[in-house]
User: What shape does this take?
Amino acid sequence: MLRHFFTLIWNKRRAHTLLMIEIGASFLVLFGVFSLLIASFRRYWDPIGFSYENVWVLKLSQKEGAGDTREQKKALLQRIRSYPEVQRASLTNQSFPEGTQSDSINYKQQVKTSAIVYDADEELLPTLQLQLKAGRWFGAQDRVFEIPDNWAPRGAKDWASLPRPSYDYRPVIVNKKFQETLFPNEDPIGKVINRGAMAEWRIVGMVDHFRKDPLAEEVPVMFETAVGQYGAREMSMLIKTRAGVDATFQSQLMKEVSQIAKDVDAEMIFLDDIRKQEFNDVMVLITIFLLISGFLLMDVVLGLFGILHLNMISRKSEIGLRRAMGATEGAITLQFMSEIWVLTTFSIAVSLVVALQFPLLNAFDMDASVYLTAILAAIISLYVLVTLCAWYPSRLASRIQPAVALHEE
Assistant: This one.
């Protein structure tokens, strides 16, 4: 019987082309929706690699026309660390937690990757409670130089002109994703990498995970020493406060900042608020995509329901003849349901050719299991949708009396 249905649908494939396109398009929409939801769900529950609770971000920007502000920033950091309400304080780049994009990191001039680069000092590890997996974190031995105020390197010669320590490399710390991308299954400690035209960088440590927010894809991350950031026009200080610290201390701290660093504009932001804003921005995009996909699916469902209902009306004589020959209501229902299931199978088979390209090509750098799970969920959901669409027209068709159908003919 099943073979008969496949033969019947195949022989009428031209008549069912539009219906197959609609079902195939629905499958691809469901595949996209489930891929997004599964990937987002996994990212949300995966560890981000650091603690954002009770962490404040003090963004500093040098005023126009101001002179050397390095001493002011050093004095400010020392004063912040002296407060009993503060557990830890560290230096980082001004755009934290965004970081700086670098597209020219390579290993042995062969394997290349892009990475997010963060400035870090010795206190960043305990401040954010990063999980060190191998090697070491930055120490006093990595305070190699001070970057001159407003200094902008134009190439490798400018970097080479700066004072260097006894060892001829700059230490960096990477995350596990960085190690998996550049040298999988190898110990990253001691590996020498290059970043554009700059001098050699040597990996001295590796942290486990590091993502800027719960819904962000984990990408290669590299931490470089922030000793010279006192001379940068813009920078940030991360402040880990004790539990229960309220807005009163924030007001007191900002007053101290304005008194100590008079040539610097300051802005205080809670890291948890930044995380929530990033999360909300991503959720808005996801919601928009889901709404558009929902409207497309609703349009297809209504169209499919109408086509099946019209198909039932046009086949009244066939239904009446089968009922007159002894077919039961259940047999008529099963016939219509089986036809739409077979038609759906043909449509999915064609659409699978497109969907399987995503895991094969590693599209959007997502794990293949995400796409395969999405394909399975889309197939199940599509069969449920077409079953719901076909059930009512099939039930109406099964209730047609032979005398009525043949009389109308």
Q: What stands out?
A: The chain is about 50% helix and 20% strand. The mean pLDDT is 82. Residues 308 and 393 are 6 Å apart (CA to CA).
